[in-house]
Design goal:
The chain is mainly beta. Helices cover 6% and strands 45% of the residues. The strands form 5 sheets. Strands 12, 13, 14, 16, 17 and 20 form a 6-stranded antiparallel beta sheet that branches. Strands 1, 4, 5, 8 and 9 form a 5-stranded mixed beta sheet that branches.
Length: 288
Amino acid sequence: MKKLNKILLFLICSFIGVSCEKHVVEYKATPIDEATTAEFQLFYMVPVVSGASNTINRVELNDKLLSNETAPISVFNFVPSGAVGRFFATTPSQVNLKMYKGVITDLLQTYDQNFDLPAGKHNVVVHDFEKPPVILSNQEPYPKVTTENTGTTAWVRFYNFLYETSGVPTSLKLQYQFQYTVNNETGEKSEWANLGNPVSFGEGTGWEPVTVNKTVEISSGTARIDYRIRMVGANGSDEGSLVIRNTSGNMIDYNDFWNASIGRVYHHMLAGFRQGSPGAAVRQATAY
């Protein structure tokens, strides 16, 4: 019996030893030098009606496949998608970008432009099928804060890609503003605050902090943030709220809200027609 116990003990120790062996899992990947590599995210902000006929189902960079119907780009969306902080990578140079829309059995080339793509991380924003994209620095690394307890901050970057009518970008300089709930019991709101500086068409703010007063105490923290847009005159004066046409055909002051989570970083892109369809709205995308 003693010998049997010793044998069992030996076998148990052997199994434990085997299970604790280090196994290295390797993935096929190519390391890149960020200083000499162009990395980018592709944003589709052309003001066209959403639907299958306008979905981008194939993208080529320098005549090589970049994405296809397995990762389609719907109107007012971007790729790479599926996870935050992902970028395409290529050699910094003048590049050619082609985009094809429609059903995959009958694709129509709808975009073919050459442009310079520098080293670093950038947002490539296609806003007109007949024009080169706007290239904006992604401003990575993203902001962050370290706190002992749960923080109270998220970050938002606002972009102005508003069109007045077809082929006519807005000439307005726009000031994005936010407001948050100060007291969740009474519903008291903060004063309106500027989110960065005013921006013209094709421009974006920096990563600007917004206050997240979470509604559930024992949680990672999410809260509603209200937004509005003010028009700014040539002398910097406030010329009132941005007025847009709603789905009922009425001209109204723009306002909206988005939920924000503590520690997250968000793109807020204003796109669409101010007085037509598809209507102007801010689209939120999580950067990190």
